[in-house]
């Protein structure tokens, strides 16, 4: 650029010195001065372009090719291949590293590792104005080639393993999709509520148990244990009237249910309503072996209320169930005396004295009754 500026300055000096040339020569050159000036400008522009092209070619020829061909979909341009600035071995290695493109589509091409990109950016930002620095860059590129080989092979391994990872992550989803939900029936849900209520009772949470018993009965009004437990819970809190209402609603559904009838009679007797208790038990039709407590309580209530025939029948059934128990023979003998059947009463007392496991008080009572009946018979 300094040569061109010098030529321009000389030209200006020549044009500013008209006295040094003959008048005829100046007159002869005046017609062609405009044309010569344009040719001079064209020559200078051509020289300038030639200098720029030569300088750019020098830079491109001295700079080593260090950037990999990241775009795997387009073929590498010949202008980007290694040139004579590096030796033959370095050029062959660089070509093998950066010109090999994986045979995959652009969407599935492996991503260049971040370490390789950082090294390339660092090399691009370094100055390249002197040959010494270029040599340093060439040495660095040769020294970093082995790690680059390891880094470029890493995405290939990751690409091969990625389908296996996706299969392993999709397998739990398929298993979850195959799980079928089983809808429970109202009776099954009621049973679950009942079990939860029992657990609440064990944990001393009666309020929670009460609500769970109610939920169970809402799902299955004929749940025997849930209704019995709820009535007993309310009676234990001193709310006998509410307990009887719960049992009454159950008896309306199942009039012959012995558990509800027995609990109803016990609460009624505890509330001093013996007549209602006996009436509740008289509606029960069950075998003595299945519900002996019904017969025991009914016989006791009948004898206290003067219904000796009912008491005698129940004691006779209990004696048939347990022949060796003297209590049933004693009860039958007392009922027979009130029914004015002394012979039957004497027979029951005598058989009771022969029974085993007889307490001393019962033995004394029956001996007195045997002695008195025998005296009356004489």
UniProtKB/TrEMBL annotation:
InterPro entries: TPR-like_helical_dom_sf, TPR_rpt, Ycf3
Transmembrane segments: 37-57
Superkingdom per UniProt: Bacteria
Comp. bias intervals (Polar residues): 124-134, 151-178
A Pfam family assignment: TPR_16
Keyword set, alphabetical order: Membrane, Repeat, TPR repeat, Transmembrane, Transmembrane helix
Region Disordered, annotated ranges: 119-178
Per-repeat ranges for TPR: 292-325
Official protein name in the record: Uncharacterized protein
Coiled coil: none
């Amino acid at each position: 650029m300094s040569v061109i500026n010098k030529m321009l300055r000389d030209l200006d000096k020549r044009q500013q010195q008209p006295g040094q040339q003959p008048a005829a020569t100046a007159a002869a050159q005046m017609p062609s001065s405009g044309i010569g000036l344009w040719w001079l400008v064209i020559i200078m522009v051509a020289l300038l372009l030639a200098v720029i092209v030569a300088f750019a070619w020098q830079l491109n020829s001295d700079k080593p090719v260090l950037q990999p061909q990241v775009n795997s979909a387009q073929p590498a341009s010949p202008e980007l291949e290694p040139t004579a600035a590096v030796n033959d071995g370095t050029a062959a290695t660089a070509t093998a590293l950066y010109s090999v493109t994986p045979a995959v589509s652009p969407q599935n091409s492996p991503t260049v590792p971040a370490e390789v990109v950082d090294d390339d950016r660092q090399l691009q930002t370094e100055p390249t104005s002197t040959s010494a620095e270029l040599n340093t860059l060439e040495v660095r590129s040769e020294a970093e080639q082995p790690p680059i080989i390891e880094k470029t092979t890493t995405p290939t391994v990751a690409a091969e393993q990625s389908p296996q990872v996706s299969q392993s992550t999709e397998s739990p989803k398929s298993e979850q999709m195959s799980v079928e939900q089983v809808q429970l029936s109202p009776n099954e849900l009621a049973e679950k509520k009942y079990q939860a209520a029992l657990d609440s009772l064990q944990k001393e949470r009666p309020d929670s148990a009460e609500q769970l018993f109610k939920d169970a009965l809402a799902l299955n009004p004929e749940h025997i244990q849930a209704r019995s437990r709820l009535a007993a819970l309310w009676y234990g809190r001193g709310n006998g009237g509410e307990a009887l209402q719960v049992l009454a609603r159950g008896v309306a559904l199942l009039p012959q249910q012995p558990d509800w009838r027995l609990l109803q009679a016990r609460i009624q007797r505890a509330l001093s309503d013996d007549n209602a208790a006996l009436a509740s038990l008289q509606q029960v039709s069950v075998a003595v072996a299945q519900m002996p407590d019904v017969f025991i309580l009914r016989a006791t209530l009948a004898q206290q209320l003067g219904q000796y025939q009912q008491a005698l029948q129940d004691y006779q059934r209990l004696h048939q169930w347990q022949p060796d128990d003297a209590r049933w023979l004693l009860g039958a003998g007392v009922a027979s005396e009130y029914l004015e059947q002394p012979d039957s009463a004497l027979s029951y007392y005598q058989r009771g004295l022969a029974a085993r496991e007889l307490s001393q008080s019962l033995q004394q009572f029956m001996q007195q009754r045997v002695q008195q009946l025998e005296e009356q018979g004489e």
